[in-house]
Design a protein that fits this description.
Layout (H helix, E strand, L loop, with lengths): L2 H4 L5 E5 L4 H5 L2 H9 L3 E3 L2 H9 L5 H9 L5 H26 L6 E5 L8 H15 L4 E6 L4 H9 L5 E6 L2 H20 L9 E6 L1 H17 L3 H8 L5 H16 L3 H7 L7 E5 L12 H4 L6 E5 L1 H10 L10 H13 L4 H35 L5 E5 L1 H17 L2 H6 L20 H4 L2 H14 L3 E5 L6 H9 L8 E5 L4 H10 L5 E6 L6 H18 L1 H4 L3 E5 L4 H8 L4 E4 L13 H9 L4 H14 L10 H14 L4 E6 L6 H13 L7 E4 L13 E8 L5 H12 L4 E6 L5 H19 L9 H18 L9 E2 L3 E4 L2 H9 L6 H9 L7 E6 L5 H18 L2 E6 L8 H6 L4 E8 L14 H18 L3 E7 L3 H16 L1
Parallel strand pairs: 1-2, 1-8, 2-3, 3-4, 4-5, 5-6, 6-7, 7-8, 10-11, 10-12, 12-13, 13-14, 15-16, 15-17, 17-18, 21-22, 21-23, 23-24
Antiparallel strand pairs: 9-18, 19-20, 20-24
Length: 948
């Protein structure tokens, strides 16, 4: 007789520890039921990983599932796994029915990531039970301390459970008691226990592997031949002895008055199932853990190779109750040898949880890869060419992040991923795309369209303005919707210039401020509210204003008082620079008629690709963040962003995100936006290049330079967007990457400790102006008809020592000569930001870059104060700063204030400069007198001459 089939005569059921789609579909499982009497199937992440990752038999199912909508990787796996479990359960259902529910089960495991989470285990087990919807399902729950209460709870709900990762007799007793208590609860609630089944999966071969290793070490150290012989006699015996004694506990627990009462109601005993029965030591029989553990009312789940081996040469006998005293003697001898079986089994549980989690990581990685392949062009492409050194560091850290479950912890809002301060309070951006109320945005957009506005103006700073600016610059004006503008300056000329571009009578204003207390949006709102009141009447003015602000802010109160048309609430758990995919970005988008539904749909694809269930090696946000952070630690901290024409403004948004998030505590990444590519010889060894473009924007000259940089050893990241509609994917990718880089750098990426310092200085200066009608006097270190120079005593002394004397050129020469290897030079201009001035600063910065071979920044104040200003003050001391201020040809009053726009701007510039010098930064301020255009030309000439 077939030895496997013959096990039935000894009261033991054989289950198969294997499952795959084709195996069931082709009838192979049915054949084993017919020929071998197989009565059940067990699955686990390792089994599914091999089935999905090493074949293409699941590709069609994954593709079909994704056609019905994108979904998280874990959910995608679960979808195909449940189909497999249902199909196998249906094949085994006749066995279940024939044996009156005593056998014929298929097991599906809860996520290994929940092994230490009682509530999570219960919720997932209940969901799997309902989703699979088969009576002959067993949900697998690990016998961890957190798993035990879940087991009792689930049995008490009438759910059949396979308890896994059991190694210890003591824990087995706890498991059996949890089963009994659960049944009693179920019966008390009126449940029929005859429908509830359970097995306790007692692992075998892993115990021998662990014990034998310690025995070998002791044998090697022993000098007495008889002691060596005694120790050697224990090898390969402990696991079976342990299992035999567990079976004796089973007989004790499932007898007597307590059990009889339950059995009288139709309850089934919880059978012991021998798991891990494939032989790992080649010196032992390949059927050892089957032949020695045969007994009534037990189960042995075997891998296919062990099943084949037992069928070929196994010998069935009633072995489980043989030599019980010998089994006790083996364990006593083991204890006498100084080897703790309790310690080994406790470690095996931990190791088992880790191994299953590792297998789940591999499994989800395989599913993530297949998802990305199916979605294809639906996901923006990312390629990292990092060079061997940084590439190896990323590879090593990727594995460290996987082993430590860091990306899952990040999504679980675990602040220990960073510095353990308050990072957990600032992670709302992870969920903002999925939380977007699209129907409300669409209704709002419909109302805006009905008003026939010609223009929409965002009044905001930093995170409230830079995201909307990307949208305004990237998307064309939509038919029937207003043209979107952004004002983020207190420069009088820029305010006046914006006013000239719009029709005040036909414009909607979006006042955007999280706290409501930011100076610039408040004065901009006061100014334009007064202008609109003059134009259409004070009683109607409020109807032309929208507020986007956090609940309870001062702006919300003002908006309510002034009768704003609508107040949108931001999420207080999202910092400004991470807010573009929240109302701070989506309200302007909807106002401008950008399709928010499509924007969010594409964004969610990237959010899912960066999700907690996507292991680091397949997670694009994690990969980019690790590369940025590790490159920064390696000295390549100048993140040079190259944005193609269609998305030219993206770098300005990314610049703020990276600088304000990472530049603090003397550490950080310095983003470089707007520098065109040059030859490799132009650059030092401090660059990290990110090239981002849309598909089809090919530029041979640019690509040639990029390839040359890569060849020269510079790390290069290439990102290709399918279209501008995918911009949300890049917002999310960069947000996650920046948070990851912050973790690598060891800083809190959600605070901005140095921004407030400049605000305090500004408030002090404007308060002085309100009292006296003028800003405190300053003494220039050099004065001419065209310009005055200012700096603190320390900088002045250093510059004079470097050759600065009575003319501008000597001061500039001395100042730029202070920039060296790995430094950067930042031009900080408090002037109108228009095309001519952008070009002027660009010409100056490239002259500096090409002569000094340093990275350069060209920034406009006060907008950069809410962007890169944090890194300049709090980041690495590698900046050389030239602040540019000028006389305002025509100032502009702020309603209700003594201080005008020009005064506020001047106070901001001086406050900013004071903080730079207080922090010991290399800083010089040039104040241009008279005509600004002439002054900029003069400065450009002076810089060129100073560099030569």
């Amino acid at each position: 007789m077939n030895p496997v089939k013959a096990l039935e005569n000894h009261g033991q059921a054989i289950w198969l520890d294997f499952l795959a789609r084709g195996f069931v579909a082709k009838g192979d499982l049915q054949k084993l039921i017919d020929s071998d009497g197989v009565k059940g199937v067990t699955s686990n992440p390792s089994i599914f990983e091999k089935a999905i990752g090493s074949s293409d038999e699941y590709d069609g199912a994954i593709g079909y599932a994704l056609k019905r909508g994108d979904r998280p990787v874990a959910e995608l796996f679960e979808h195909v796994a449940i189909e497999d479990i249902q199909n196998a359960a249906d094949v085994l259902r006749p066995v279940y029915d024939q044996l009156n529910g005593d056998d014929g089960f298929v097991s599906l495991e809860v996520s290994p990531y929940l092994a230490m989470d009682t509530k999570g285990t219960i919720a997932e087990a209940e969901r799997l039970w309902n989703d699979v919807s088969r009576k002959n399902l067993m949900v697998k729950v690990p016998a961890t301390p957190e798993g035990l209460p879940a087991i009792q709870h689930l049995i008490g709900e009438g759910i059949s459970i396979n308890i896994t990762l059991l190694f210890s007799q003591k824990v087995y007793v706890e498991v059996a008691k949890a089963y009994l208590a659960g049944l009693e609860k179920y019966v008390k609630a009126g449940g029929d226990p005859s429908h509830v089944a359970s097995v306790a999966s007692f692992f075998v071969s892993r115990i021998d592997s662990a014990v034998d290793k310690q025995l070998d070490e002791k044998i090697a150290r022993a000098n007495d031949p008889s002691e060596k012989e005694r120790l050697a006699a224990l090898k390969g015996k402990v696991a079976i002895a342990n299992a035999k004694l567990a079976y004796q506990e089973y007989k004790r627990l499932f007898s007597g008055p307590r059990w009889d009462k339950l059995a009288g109601r139709g309850a089934k005993p919880q059978r012991l199932l021998w798991a891990s029965t494939g032989t790992k030591n080649k010196d032992y029989s390949d059927v050892l853990y089957v032949e020695e553990l045969i007994g009534p009312n037990t189960v042995n789940t075997v891998p296919p190779a062990t099943l084949d081996a037992f069928r070929d040469h196994g010998t069935p006998r009633d072995s489980l109750e043989e030599n019980i005293e010998d089994a006790k003697h083996v364990l006593a001898e083991l204890e006498k040898s100084g080897i703790s079986l309790d310690a080994i089994t406790a470690e095996l549980v931990k190791d088992g949880v880790r191994l299953f989690a590792d297998a789940a990581d591999k499994l989800y990685g395989a599913v993530a890869h297949k998802r990305a392949t199916v979605l294809g062009a639906g996901l923006d492409r990312q390629a990292l060419a990092l060079g061997s050194e940084i590439g190896k560091a990323v590879e090593t850290t990727t594995e460290e992040w996987r082993a430590a479950a860091t990306i899952r912890r990040l999504w679980q809002h675990d602040k220990s991923v960073w510095t353990g301060t308050d990072e957990n309070k600032w992670l709302g951006w992870l969920h903002s795309p999925s939380a977007a109320d699209i129907a409300d945005y669409e209704d709002y957009a419909h109302r805006v369209k009905g008003q026939n506005f010609s223009d929409a103006v965002v009044l905001g700073m930093g995170g409230s303005s830079l995201g909307p600016e990307v949208l305004a610059e990237t998307f064309a004006k939509q038919p029937g919707f207003p043209r979107l503008h952004v004002l983020d300056s207190t420069d009088p000329a820029q305010v006046r210039s914006l006013q000239a571009k719009i029709n005040l009578a036909n414009t909607v204003f979006i006042v955007s401020s999280k706290s409501g207390g930011t100076t610039e949006p408040n004065v901009m709102k006061d100014y334009f509210f007064a202008r609109v009141s003059e134009t259409i009447g004070a009683e109607k003015a409020g109807h032309r204003f929208i507020a986007v602000t956090d609940p309870g802010s001062s702006l919300e109160k003002v908006a309510a008082k002034q009768g704003f048309a609508r107040i949108f609430h931001g999420d207080p758990t999202i910092g400004g620079r991470y807010s573009v995919l929240s109302p701070f970005g989506l309200v302007p988008a909807a106002t401008a008629g950008i399709d928010v539904r499509t924007l969010i749909k594409h964004t969610l694809s990237m959010a899912l690709s960066c999700g907690p269930d996507v292991p680091p090696h397949e997670n694009p946000g994690v990969q980019l963040g690790l590369a940025m952070g590790l490159a920064g630690l390696d000295g390549r901290d100048k993140v040079t962003i190259l944005s193609s024409r269609k998305i030219a403004d993206f770098g300005a948004w990314a610049e703020q995100l990276i600088a304000e998030s990472t530049g603090k505590e003397g550490k950080g990444l310095i983003p470089i936006d707007g520098e065109p590519l040059a030859d490799p010889a132009t650059y030092g060894q401090d660059r990290f290049f990110i090239d981002i473009r849309t598909e089809g924007e090919d530029d041979a000259a640019h690509d040639g330079k990029l390839a040359a940089l890569e060849k020269a050893g510079h790390p290069v990241v290439r990102i290709v967007m399918k279209s501008i509609e995918h911009i949300g994917q890049e917002f999310f990718r960069f947000e996650l990457a920046t948070a990851v880089a912050g973790a690598v750098l060891g800083i809190n990426p959600f605070n901005q400790p140095d921004v407030e310092a400049a605000k305090i200085k500004t408030r002090e200066l404007t308060a002085a102006f309100e009292k006296s009608g003028k800003l405190p006097a300053e003494e220039p270190v050099m004065s001419s008809a065209q310009a005055d120079l200012y700096t603190d005593e320390k900088n002045a002394a250093a510059l004079r020592q470097a050759g600065a004397n009575g003319d501008l050129g000597s001061w500039l020469k001395a100042h730029f000569s202070r920039s060296g290897t790995d430094d950067y030079v930042a031009l900080l201009a408090y002037i109108e930001r228009d095309t001519a001035h952008i070009d002027a600063l660009q010409h100056m910065r490239l002259a500096v870059r090409d002569k000094r071979h340093v990275a350069t920044c060209a920034e406009f104040g006060p907008r950069f104060l809410h962007s890169t200003g944090q890194a300049y003050k709090g980041g690495p001391d590698s900046g050389v700063f030239l602040q540019i201020t000028a006389d305002d040809s025509k100032d502009l009053a702020v309603p209700g204030q003594k201080a005008s726009f020009g005064v506020i701007k001047a106070a901001q510039a001086r406050g900013d400069f004071d903080v730079l010098t207080e922090r010991g930064r290399r800083a010089l301020r040039v104040h241009l007198k008279g005509d600004l255009e002439a002054g900029l030309k003069m400065l450009d000439t002076a810089i060129t001459e100073a560099l030569n």
